[in-house]
Each structure stands twice: as structure tokens, then as C-alpha cells.
Prior knowledge:
single chain; 0% strand; elongated
Amino acid sequence: MFAALFLLGLVLSTILAGGKPYPSPFGDATSILVYFRDNADAVRIGGAFQFGAAIPLAIYAATASARLHQLGIRVPGPTIALSGGLLASGFLALSGLIGWTLGRPELHAEPALVRALQMLNFAAGGVGHVVPLGLLLAGIAVPGLLARLMPAWLAWAGLIIAGIAELSTLALLVDGAAYLLPVARFTAFAWLIIAGFRLPRQRARAEA
Length: 208
């Protein structure tokens, strides 16, 4: 549900904007202002779906943490997964609300305010969301590997994606590092879905 709502919001907002993608905060200031002015409905809908996607992510983090405890994992992994998932959910919700605000027509007469909110939207929904999302993956993947709760290839893939997510912190310092954000985000979607199916309900089944 987390992945579906996020992707649905992305697709709907792009369709409503006539195929125009959401502008990069590092792009031309005039083009950015024109986009928000001409596509207010698309921006609001995208923000609403992004906020909605944050809720099942929080539920996933709580459920995964509880499942790991149920499987007898008493190391920090489950707590790291829960903390990372809740932080990722909170920042995604904040980004969605800021995105919804950017779609309000009354703001478009204040270019400086629009630019500031877009930067904050990028920071919250980009680095603020993706970096703790990596902690969620790592918190599941490490116990999954050490306790053999999931296939080794899946656990290692989770750790690699988590590493990319943590490296995306560089986007706050180097604009070019922002490409790490979609790489980590969308591969994390796929990994969380697969891990949700592969994480066992009982330890005995995993050992078998």
C-alpha cells in the first residue's frame, strides 16, 4: 500500500500536469514558479497521496519490528527498523503536507515563499525520508542475514540499498548526489515488498 499510494500519486500528478514532471529544486526559478501556478491541482493531489502513503509505511515498520521480536530477535535490529520506519514515515507525511500547501493558489504571488517551501519539500521527502528508510531496510536485513530468516541474497540486497540510502545524505552538500535518492527509494519499494513475503511467521520454518 505504501508503494502503491506513492506511485499512484506520482502518476496522477504527472498526468494532470500534462506529462510535465515535478520540477527539480535546482532548476530554473521562473520555470518552477510557472509549474506551480499552472498545475496547482496536480501538486495538491500529489501531496495528498504522498501523505497517505506515509501511514502504511508506519504500519509496516511496526509490524516488521514486532515480527522480528516474535521470531526471537533480541538485538538492536528490530528497534532500528522501527525507528527508521517511523522517521521515514514522518518525513514523508511532512513532505506531503508541504506539497499540498504548494498547490494553494494564494501562495503563488510570493515567489520567495514558493521556492523556500519547495526546498523544504525536497529536503523532507528526499533526504529526510530516504535516509531513515535505509535504516528500516538495514534493521530487517541484518537480523535476516545473521539469523537466516531470509535468503542471503535478499538480505545482502537490502544492505546494499540501505547503504545507497545513507549515502544520499550527500545530496545536502552536493547537488549531483541527488540522483542517489530515486535509486534508493524505488529499489527500497521492491525490497520491502519481497521481504514482507519472505520474512517467516515462525522461527522453526526459517530454520527448516
